Amino acid sequence: MNRPRTGGPGDRPFVLVEQDRGALRIAALDPAAMRGGLRAGMALAEARALWPDLETAQAEPEADAAFMRHLGELCDLFTPLVALHASDGLILDVTGCAHLFGGEREMVWRVRRRLGALGLASCAAISGTPHAAWALARDRRNTIVAAGEEEQAARPLPLTALEQDPATVLALGRAGFQTLGDLADRPSGMLTARFGSSLADTLRRILGREDIRITPLRPAPEIMAEKHFPAPLGLLESLLAVLERLAQDIMAALERRGAGGRAFEVSVFRSDGAVRRIAVETAQGMRDASGLMRLVRLKLEALSDPLDPGFGFDAVRLVVIRSEPMAERQAALDGGPASQAEAGDVASLVDRLTARFGRETVQRFVMHDTHDPMRAGGSVPFLARHTTAPFAHPEPGQPPARPLTLFDPPQWIEALAEVPDGPPLRFRWRRVLHEVARAEGPERIAPEWWRCGNAAPATRDYYRIENAHGHRFWVFREGLYEDSTARPRWFLHGLFA
Amino acid sequence: MNIWLPDMPSALATEQDHPTQGAPGFSLARGALHEFYAGAEADGVSLSALAVMLGMAGGQQATLWARHEALTHETGMPHPAGLAELGFDPSHLLLIRARDAPSALQAGLEGARCPALGAVIIELRGEVKAYDLTASRRLALAARASGVPVFVVRAAAAPMPSAAETRWLARAAPSRALAAKAPGHPAFHLVLLRARNGQEGLQHHLEWNRDAQRLESNPSGHGEAAAARQPDGGASAPLSRGVVAVPVHRPDTARDEPPPYRRAG
Question: What is the ipTM of this complex?
Answer without folding.
Answer: 0.77
